[in-house]
Amino acid sequence: MATFQDAQLREILTGSPTIAVLGAHHEPEKAAFYVPDYLHDEGYRILAVNPMLTDRPLFGEPVRATLAEIDEPVDLVDVFRRAELIPQHIEDILAMKPRPRVVWFQLGIKNDDAAHVLEAAGITVVQNRCTLADHQRLALGAPARK
């Protein structure tokens, strides 16, 4: 699996203004809420995905039940799901039109088999890293708009 240098992480984060958050949460103390909330505050467009939360908006957008409900380009899919559950989302990720450039498994989440499938399809996979921590550590501002 790839090890990312700071320049690569910087390019990924500044070049990904639209992020789908798979497993987004509504409870402020959960990383699946406060990480995308931070990114939203920094200027990213956040599309939350969680079938249990479709009755409410999050981050100024309606919550989608699945990735398949997103009908617009997404630059990065930020995954907040247990590693053993990632394979059930691979088909949806690969069916996205266009496919995301990057799939990011959050800190503590690593699934090499899923990463190999996604990488074979031309998608960059970041594993076991936190988007919030890397964004802050690299002192990045708002993402570049396309």
Describe this structure in words.
With 146 residues, the protein is of the alpha/beta class. It has one domain (6-11, 18-108, 123-137): 3-Layer(aba) Sandwich (Rossmann fold). Helices cover 31% and strands 17% of the residues. It contains 5 helices and 7 strands. It has helices at 6-14, 31-41, 87-95, 112-120, 131-137; strands at 18-22, 45-49, 57-58, 61-62, 76-79, 102-105, 124-126. The chain has a 5-stranded parallel β-sheet with strand order 2-1-5-6-7. A two-stranded antiparallel sheet has the order 3-4. Strand 1, helix 2 (31-41) and strand 2 (45-49) form a beta-alpha-beta unit. Helix 3 (87-95) packs parallel to helix 4. The chain is globular. It starts with 5 loop residues before the first helix and ends in a 9-residue tail after the last helix. The model has no long low-confidence stretch (mean pLDDT 95).
Furnish the topology, listing elements before pairings:
Layout: H1 6-14, E1 18-22, H2 31-41, E2 45-49, E3 57-58, E4 61-62, E5 76-79, H3 87-95, E6 102-105, H4 112-120, E7 124-126, H5 131-137
Parallel strand pairs: 1-2, 1-5, 5-6, 6-7
Antiparallel strand pairs: 3-4
Helix pairs in contact: 3-4
What's the gist of this structure?
31% of the residues lie in helices and 17% in strands. By secondary structure, the chain is of the alpha/beta class.
| Rg calculated over all Cα atoms | 14 Å
Largest sheet: 5 strands, parallel
CATH homology superfamily? NAD(P)-binding Rossmann-like Domain
The parts where pLDDT drops under 50 for at least 5 residues are: none
pLDDT averaged over residues: 95
Strand percentage? 15-25%
Taken together, the total number of domains comes to 1
Query: Helical stretch count?
Result: 5
What is the H-and-E element order? HEHEEEEHEHEH
User: Strand order within the widest sheet?
Assistant: 2-1-5-6-7
Count of strand segments: 7
Query: Termini separation (Å)?
Result: 29 Å
